Amino acid sequence: MMEMEPFIRMENGQAAAMLTIESWRRQFPEIRAGFTTRIGGVSEAPYDSLNGGLHVGDDAGHVRTNRRIIASLAGFAFEDWTCAEQVHGSNVYLVRAGDRGKGRNDRSDAIPDADALVTNVPGVMLASFYADCVPLYFVHPASRTVALAHAGWKGTALRIAEETIRVLQDQFDCAPESLYAAIGPSIGGCCYEIDGEVASRLAAALAGEAAVADSKMEWENPGVGLKAGNDGRYVADLKEINRQIMIKAGIQPTSIEISRYCTSCRTDLFYSHRKEKGKTGRMVSWIGLKEEVAD
Ligand SMILES: [Zn+2]
């Protein structure tokens, strides 16, 4: 049987094309989660058109309009949009009620220096930004806790997935085996060529090592998610490497959804930093809990 793509286009009757995690929509009706495409916003080339990133040189007014469109279709108020300044690190930030809305209009009040956000506050829409990097989503249904993590090769090598799982465990008592995770559209193993130094750091992350003592270390069997490419280079499947890190951290393989979309192959749908040589927009991943309805 063909594997199904878990990220499915939402039926919103609007121009903006947004993807939702179909199995979660049915399984966890209290959770809203998904990923934007580049289609249906107001930004002009090369940011055309649903750019969510304020840091890429696009017109800020256009980005704010796009963010309002995205929040509304995701089922949130614009005031719920909460985001951080991503730095390709592995800091996990615990979002509380007082953080709601940070960074939505302006980078100056975004949560600083965080590539992963965790919350159990209903009505907070966590958002983060992508053009090839891997969006990671986490849900712990019993404690009604959700998380987002941004994993490029650096975040993957720093095992940000494991860091996020650790915070969920320490702060919310989420047993890893009762967590659900999703891995969204990103650059695929088809398109992501890297040099030996990056490959050795990813191999170390796969092996569960904190850091590579010698960045030029030799390794024989790169492992799942890494293979030799042309001219001494390597090819990495960052989605698969993050899946392996999640499984090693205790999430059940059957509880992990993984997108088949490659952002570099599909620039008709997505922004790709590599394919578009750095001059492009950003997709948005979002997750949040519906606000509880008062009687
Ligand atoms: Zn590709």
TrEMBL record:
Required co-factors = Zn(2+)
One family from Pfam that matches here is Cu-oxidase_4
Does the keyword Transport belong to this entry?
Answer: no
Q: Which UniProt keywords apply?
A: Hydrolase, Metal-binding, Transferase, Zinc
A single Gene Ontology MF term assigned here is: S-methyl-5-thioadenosine phosphorylase activity
Entry-linked InterPro entries: Cu_polyphenol_OxRdtase (IPR003730), Cu_polyphenol_OxRdtase_sf (IPR038371), Cytotoxic_necrot_fac-like_cat (IPR011324)
Known catalytic reactions: adenosine + phosphate = alpha-D-ribose 1-phosphate + adenine; S-methyl-5'-thioadenosine + phosphate = 5-(methylsulfanyl)-alpha-D-ribose 1-phosphate + adenine; adenosine + H2O + H(+) = inosine + NH4(+); inosine + phosphate = alpha-D-ribose 1-phosphate + hypoxanthine
The UniProt family comment states: Belongs to the purine nucleoside phosphorylase YfiH/LACC1 family.
Protein task: Purine nucleoside enzyme that catalyzes the phosphorolysis of adenosine and inosine nucleosides, yielding D-ribose 1-phosphate and the respective free bases, adenine and hypoxanthine. Also catalyzes the phosphorolysis of S-methyl-5'-thioadenosine into adenine and S-methyl-5-thio-alpha-D-ribose 1-phosphate. Also has adenosine deaminase activity.
- This chain belongs to which protein, by name? Purine nucleoside phosphorylase
Report the source organism: Xylanibacillus composti
